[in-house]
């Protein structure tokens, strides 16, 4: 008697590629990741089919030479490390994150080499750095495997937040250090940066993270960066008095993100 939790007919239909409802596929694939008994029953269903075993064997023969020997403790450690990394970030994003870090560093050099009355260029750019990091962490244009990842059972807001956290951990420390080097306190831009990040994630559930990040960047540039550079003044919206307003924006965006969190299960990035 089988110990599988899923009915045998459903596993058989899944094994042969029948057109199952989308919500059934989500639940079934997520369950198969956690249940060895059902995976074993699925393997039995594949072996019982007259066509599938030959198909699976042909795929294995074609792919095996590219996978290496697949044995040994070192191979196992590398495999587990890559699986863990895939839950948080992908190698293809790292060059884009490096470019994101290079933006505030370039602004720091320009500010340090410029005249004393130059507007605080790094302060104007710093709130956007987390936004750029979030944009490259969940985007079809920067991740070649995005289409595959976005339709897996584990995809969704949790995966997006994991990659966002990695992006913030990579981009924020260099900006903080650069700001301290030119006398720009992180306290002035960290809360606006958090608000922008939350807004991008909330809007990204509706229009895609890349589009949301581009929209926030364009609005901030037109409304704050360009006028501040033109007037050679200090941005009032980054003063301590504006902190409550940024906190309200962040909380409101978090509420919107919570409401539309299921939209990240669709490929809208």
UniProtKB/TrEMBL annotation:
This is Putative zinc-finger domain-containing protein. The chain crosses the membrane at residues 88-109, 121-139, 160-183, 189-207, 212-230, 236-260. It comes from the Bacteria. InterPro entries: Anti_sigma_zinc_sf, Znf_put. Pfam families: zf-HC2 (PF13490). Residues 9-39 form the Putative zinc-finger domain. The keyword Transmembrane helix applies. The keyword Manganese does not apply. Keywords: Membrane, Transcription, Transcription regulation, Transmembrane, Transmembrane helix. Coiled coil: none annotated.
